[in-house]
Amino acid sequence: MIDKKEILKAYQFRHACKLFDPEKIISDEDFSFIIETARLSPSSLGLEPWHFIEVQNKELRSKLKEGAWGATLKLETASHFVVCLTLKSSYMKYDSPYVADFMKNVQHHPEEVAQARRKMMENFQTRDFDLTDERKIFDWASKQCYIALGNMLTTAAMLGIDSCPIEGFNRETTDKILKNDFGVDTDKYGISYMIAFGYRANNPGPKTRRPIEKILTWKK
Amino acid sequence: MIDKKEILKAYQFRHACKLFDPEKIISDEDFSFIIETARLSPSSLGLEPWHFIEVQNKELRSKLKEGAWGATLKLETASHFVVCLTLKSSYMKYDSPYVADFMKNVQHHPEEVAQARRKMMENFQTRDFDLTDERKIFDWASKQCYIALGNMLTTAAMLGIDSCPIEGFNRETTDKILKNDFGVDTDKYGISYMIAFGYRANNPGPKTRRPIEKILTWKK
Fold first, then answer.
1. What is the dihedral of CA B165, B170, B172, B178, to 10 degrees?
2. Residues of A in contact with B139 (CB under 8 A)
3. CATH classification of B26-204 is 3.20.20.150, yes or no?
4. Can you give the pTM of this predicted structure?
5. Which of A33, B12, B102, B159 is the most exposed place for a label (fewest CB within 10 A)?
6. Which residue in B70, B65, B15 sits closest to B201, CA to CA?
């Protein structure tokens, strides 16, 4: 059990950090721990549809700027810079070899359990959530990656580390750069988001949020 | 700063709880705190595209079962049951009155800053992320709600509270129930997920995950 006051401090500490102190470097232990909480994050059917690339290489960081208009300063100053790839439909469709292999060799389901789960997944994808084209399946898998995103940002804040989640990039341009310069197989993976991690150069302004009564309704 | 060992304990504690002890009730203080960490979660452009309904009412819980094949036992046994609604495109499109009002009255941006941000948002939605129809905008807004999901599940675990995130429902049927029985304006809101919160009735099996080297690539 963790004290609520300590948790709240981390939520107050976290903000979308625009500029990092380039002299301050996150320890390997802390960075590994942030990724560990992504690894342990839940996902639909437990399929972990994510892969993270940590970009230290300066040339590759520079390349990313071509598509990522919202990341320029962060690519220049962040201690660690993560690209989150999401598994595409060739992996995430209910009848893919990936799903069959995952249920068998990662989740260790007996074949009859795996079959039942794949049938449930077929109903879910085709009937319940209308995940009936590439884009819809990608967006569904991407949502799972945003669970890991929330956890990584909060973990960082709990360790006193700043971060900035980034959607400020052109998806098509960035996927091309990932294919050509990073060797990513873009038939299988697409980018969901980027995150910069480091230590703030400046203090943030006040946090704005709607009050609780605007976001919560009780049905008693 | 929170000790890494304490954080890790919460990640190990959390699992998709299938059955809750119906006698054990979450305190108001703890439940409010879980929602508070959703409220303080980040979202794209800070637009907080979420609204949560906490369902205590037994008749309404029963109604939800009609569409939610994956929630039956949780609706019967969970201490608290949350439906997460996501704001649809009539709210979340760059040129909506909602966005303009939000930037002015929640985020307190001066008009010239708000205008620049709406222009950036137009480019982002129409050019960079191809958010060009209702469904694509909904899925993008929904992704933001999954950030809050990750945070709520982790907060709960840090307080020793069990949870289960649920996508096991028919979206169309459930949206109809939300419209007819909950009074939700489904032109403006659609369901993203449900979460059951409470205290476990049984102990979970071992957690399965791919090893770190399968989910992280370093570019040094």
1. -50
2. 136, 139-140, 142-143
3. no
4. 0.98
5. B12
6. B15
